[in-house]
Design a protein that fits this description.
mainly alpha, 2 domains, 7% strand, binds zinc ion
Length: 163
């Protein structure tokens, strides 16, 4: 008699019975496997019976320990992979946020540059206007100066009477 799991050469240690009547026998390693499967299925409990209660199951326990260790190692590996995936997901979100921030900053910088260019253009225009005003003022000064400083004509000079 062999373990009912396909291609398993081990001698069966347990007989099993599913709630719906399906029965068979399996080795100690596959007993662990089937119990997990039954837990996952959640379709009632799978019942195991030791085929030979007199037969020592030390080796089976050892196999079981190895299986449990392997499962724990696989679970640990899965946790590491999941943690790394979460880490990568976070890194990705951070980078996407950084990209959005930089794009927004780029838009803002361009807007600010445009504002500065407008300021420079306005300042240049004001300078030109001021220079034009200075030119006009200088012309006005040149026009008024001779008028302002021209002497009054000497119309009523006192002349002493002749003796
Ligand atoms: Zn087996």
């Amino acid at each position: 008699m062999q373990c009912s799991s396909p291609d398993c050469p081990a001698a069966p240690v347990y007989s099993f019975l599913w709630p719906w009547g399906e029965a068979g026998a399996c080795c100690a390693a596959h007993q662990v496997h089937m119990r997990q499967k039954a837990d996952q299925l959640e379709r009632g409990s799978l019942h195991f019976t030791l085929l030979d209660p007199q037969k020592p199951v030390a080796l089976a326990r050892d196999e079981r320990t190895q299986l449990i260790a392997a499962r724990m190692s696989a679970e640990e590996e899965m946790r590491i992979v999941q943690a790394r995936a979460a880490e990568l997901h976070k890194e990705n979100s951070d980078l996407a946020a950084e990209c959005r921030r930089l794009r927004a900053r780029d838009v803002e910088t361009k807007a600010q540059l445009k504002d500065r260019e407008a300021d420079v253009a306005r300042a240049l225009k004001e300078r030109d206007e001021a220079l034009a005003n200075v030119g006009e003022a200088q012309a006005e000064v040149r026009r008024l100066t001779p008028l302002t400083f021209r002497r009054e004509p000497e119309t009523s000079r006192f002349t002493p009477p002749n003796r």
